[in-house]
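Something for you to look into today, if you have time. Could you write out one complete protein record for me, on any chain you like? The space below this message is yours for that.
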Amino acid sequence: MVTWTTNFASLISSTPTAFGLVAAQATSYQTLSTAFTTAYNTARADGTRTPAAISTKNQAKVNMIASARSLAKIIQAYPSLTNAQRLSLGLTVHAAPSPIPVPGTSPDLDIVSSTGNTVKIRLHDSTSGSKRGKPAGVAGASIFSFVGAVPPSDASGWNFEGNTTKTEVVVSFPSGTAPGARVWLCAFWYNAKSQAGQACAAVGTNIPGGGSMGMAA
């Protein structure tokens, strides 16, 4: 602690503005650092190691640490500060956050069942060989539907059913959907920043009848 504070005080006193501080802050800290170092050496020496000296050292340490933490917050937030400067001061160098990638694959969509006007689907990672689960970095999926013989070639023709964080979803089609109508479903993954990946190929099935519109997960 003595070594750390001596180095810290020396650097910020030498060039306070380089660390986002002003001279008065560096001077105030230097005083507290010197007081702690002096009290520490007094409490450590055989001839002066008394309960009073130890108490003085402990209080000086509390004062110095409180000031160091306050200054460290200012320094760490200083836009021009480099990691080399952080290391020179003995401060923590925080790892850069890993960027959240846009989903790089489309989901596999399987038709599980078709009952009444509802179709149950299952989504899973198209690259893992598994029939369950989302890929790493995927927060959920957006589901789309279409009623008709041939699915639309662009997004404008699809009906948005909703977003889900689950991999098994029940999609309900309109009550006026004719018995035996051809229906289609597709989906794409999205990440925690709501950035979408590629949509999967449309998957079709026939449903026997109608009901109410909506999606349940």
